[in-house]
Amino acid sequence: MKQALGLPLALLALVVGFGLTSEYFLTRDTFIAIANDIPALTVMAVGMTFVLIIAGIDLSIGSVLALSAGLTAVAMQSWGWNLPGAATLGLACGLFCGTLTGAVTVAWRLPSFIVSLGMLEIARGSAYLVTDSRTQYIGGAIGGLSTPLWFGISPAFLLALAIVVASHIVLRKSVFGRYLVGIGTNEEAMRLAGIDPRPWKVIVFALMGSLAALGGLMQLSRLEAADPNAGVGMELQVIAAVVIGGTSLMGGRGSVLNTFFGVLIVAVLEAGLAQIGASDPAKRVITGCVIIVAVLLDVYRNRRKRG
C-alpha cells in the first residue's frame, strides 16, 4: 500500500519540482512529448517485469530493438516487402532472439545475465550487417503508428497502455501469472508441485524479445528511420523503470502497473533534466544514482521481509 502511494507521490514531486525550476515544463506540449516518447520504453519495461519476476534478466533488448527495426526497414526499402510482411518479419526476429536466449539459459542452466550479454553482441552485430552499418530511411511508410490522434496522443501510446492493462490482468488474475510468481519465489517448490518451470521461463524470454521488437517498430515509426546504433544503453533505462516500480531483482515480486509509474518517473526525470539544461553526462550520473537507490530499497524490502 505504501509503495502504491509512494510512486504517484514521487512522480508528482518530480513534476512540481521541474515545474518550479523551468517555466516551460508544465505545458501541454511537454506532457504530449513525454507520452509520445515512452511507448517503446513502456512495452519493453512490461516484458522486463515478467523476466525479473522469474529471477532472470535480459540485457540484449536494446540490440534486439535495433536489429528488428533494421530488418523491417531493409525488407521494405531493399527487398520490396509490404508493410505487414516487413513488420511481421521484425516481430518474428525479436521472438526468435528472445526464444533463443531463454532456451539456452534453460537448457544449459546458465545465468540469463551471461546468455543475454552474448545475445546483445550477436543482435548488435547482426543489426550492423543487415543495415550495412548505415541508417535506413523509410519516410512515412510506417508513420501511422506515431501520427498524433486525439489531443496529440499517438496510437503507439494507446497501444502501449493497452499492453500495460492486459499484462497487469494476466499477471494478477491468470494461472500464467501465478506460475511466474511461484517460479521466481521458489523454483524447486514448483518442481515438487509437479510444474516444470522450464517452458514457462522460455515463454517469458520469448515474450520479452517480441516486445523489444515491437518497441523497435514504434521507434522506427516515430523516427522514420532505423539506426543500427539505436537502443544502446536502453536496457539500463528499462531495468531502472522496472526496479523503480518495485519489481524485485531477486524474483517473485512485481507489478506491471507500478512498472508503468516507473517508466513515467524515468521519462519525467529525463525531460525535466533536459529542460533545466543538464548535460548528457550529468543525466546519466543522475539516472545511475536513481538505479542504485532503487536497488538498495529492493534489498532493504527483502531483508525486512525475511526478518
Automatic annotation (TrEMBL):
Keywords, comma-separated and alphabetical: Cell membrane, Membrane, Transmembrane, Transmembrane helix
User: Where is the chain membrane-spanning?
Assistant: 43-74, 86-110, 149-171, 200-218, 230-249, 256-276, 282-300
UniProt cross-references to InterPro entries, sorted A to Z: ABC_transp_permease (IPR001851)
The main location is membrane
Keyword Zinc-finger in annotation: no
Question: What compartments host this protein?
Answer: Cell inner membrane
Bilayer topology: Multi-pass membrane protein
**Pfam families given in the database record:** BPD_transp_2
Which GO molecular-function terms appear in the entry?
transmembrane transporter activity
Q: Which Gene Ontology terms of cellular component type are present?
A: plasma membrane
Keyword Transmembrane attributed: yes
As for family, the record states: Belongs to the binding-protein-dependent transport system permease family. AraH/RbsC subfamily.
Its name, as the record gives it, is Ribose transport system permease protein
Origin species, per record, is: Povalibacter uvarum
